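Researcher: Sequence recovery benchmark, item below. Answer with residues only.
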């Protein structure tokens, strides 16, 4: 199994997402999204190559989707979740690495 680490920025992203969804759509929706995002991240321990490569964002950067949110992670010797962002944004290398 591969070690999976969630960066402080990604954890902050997840908190921001669930806080927004709780206010905009209610606790049940926020909870479901949080659980689905966490499940996808947990799967990376067993299947680190699961996401789609995104070489323009970095040599080891990959992407998982939980619409409309995008989970960006780096996979080398371990998995590091870099950001969890709304896919309707313009995603740049600086936003991922910034």
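Model:
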């Amino acid at each position: 199994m591969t070690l999976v680490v969630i960066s402080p920025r990604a954890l902050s992203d997840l908190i921001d997402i669930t806080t927004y969804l709780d206010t905009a759509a209610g606790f049940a929706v926020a909870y479901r999204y949080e659980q689905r995002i966490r499940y996808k991240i947990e799967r990376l321990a067993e299947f680190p190559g699961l996401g789609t490569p995104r070489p323009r964002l970095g040599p080891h950067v990959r992407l998982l989707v939980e619409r409309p949110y995008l989970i960006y992670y780096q996979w080398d010797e371990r998995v590091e979740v870099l950001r969890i962002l709304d896919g309707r944004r313009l995603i740049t290398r600086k936003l991922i690495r910034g």
